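Obj: model holo form, ligand = DAU.
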Amino acid sequence: MRTYLVTGGAGFIGSNYIHYMFRKYGDDIRIINVDSLTYAGNLENLKEIAGRSNYTFIRADITDKEAIKKIFSENEIDRVVHFAAESHVDRSIKNPEVFVKTNVLGTAVMLNCAREAWELPDGSYKEDKKFLHVSTDEVYGSLADDGSYFYETTPYAPHSPYSASKASSDLLVKAYIDTYHFPANITNCSNNYGPYQFPEKLIPLIINNALLGKKLPVYGDGKNVRDWLYVDDHAKGIDMVQEMGRLGETYNIGGHNEKQNIEIISIILDTLLEMLPEDDARRAHISRDLITYVEDRKGHDRRYAIAPDKIKAEIGWEPETMFKDGIKKTIAWYFEHEDWMKNVTSGDYQNYYEEMYHGK
Ligand code: NAD
Ligand code: DAU
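Output (holo structure tokens):
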């Protein structure tokens, strides 16, 4: 039975990936999830699978070398899928240091512990060991509104402390591949949306605020473009790259679904009105009047757009979920999980929200 070590599995994409993997492989795999449970990590995301005999949760920080080493020494790990990171651009602008610590040092610790566990005396590796580093399209910088795309060969040009720390972590993985022939892949993915996303990110923030009748903050002119991918499609892509990709290669994963932020907000408002029952009181306050233009994000990247040509040609992966369907599934999930939203928006979230959007 293959054993996976998943880092950051209590976060948004990590928890969706773990659910996807158990749906796909059932009892044929074992998953160990290591997560330090920062504000973004939530074990409630995994409660349906927490009791499985082939699932283990370990609370540990990926920068804690001894803790990670112990996991490798006590378990024969076959696959590492490395999600754990500080992931929110706005937080990185306010407090860059923790991004460097987790994203750069944490990745170095993961690489080193995996190499120590897997490398043989002659410099080759134990059979069928693989490390997948989950990264972002933001490492490539920003595109003009000219129909151009990010390819795997696009030079790195990160702008925010978040994307600079992710770019650094990618370069470390590439250095391990080149220096030690380390068996790794990198995936650079576009913006994800779907269940369990923390409401500091655009889509869940807008859904939550609209349902509460709160203002919908739009940075700058609202015309920045992101390329949205349903999170299950990302989970599937990660698994396909790990099993079918050429070792040492980078694969871009994207939705071919570019939308301006203001379009996303309009679609969410229309979909909420379409899905809420006629007698639901919240319909009364859901309107475009809630849209509020606020000060722009510092260094705000204008446009991201992934060309997923390589992953399609080599591996046969393509985005499957149309945005109009994915957003309905996402909104339906938030309707069904009001308690989840109440729990994650209590306490620290209120302080964050006040500080971030005070007076806006
Ligand atoms: P998230 O913020 O929702 O989750 C991050 C998880 O990592 C949390 O569970 C958190 O507790 C854990 N974590 C943070 N610091 C840790 C540490 N020091 N030790 C152990 N665990 C720690 O993030 P996400 O949106 O799920 O993103 C997951 C990965 O995917 C990240 O590497 C991110 O850069 C990348 N990514 C995200 C997107 C997106 O749209 N969200 C797109 C492309 C790539
Ligand atoms: O592109 C992949 C990246 O997507 C990931 O690497 C990051 O981890 C993930 O957080 C996401 O980054 P973005 O900065 O693109 O996502 P965010 O949801 O924060 O913002 C999306 C767009 O919406 C961006 O142009 C900023 C804008 N925005 C965001 C918020 C939170 C607003 O206009 N208002 C808001 O309140």
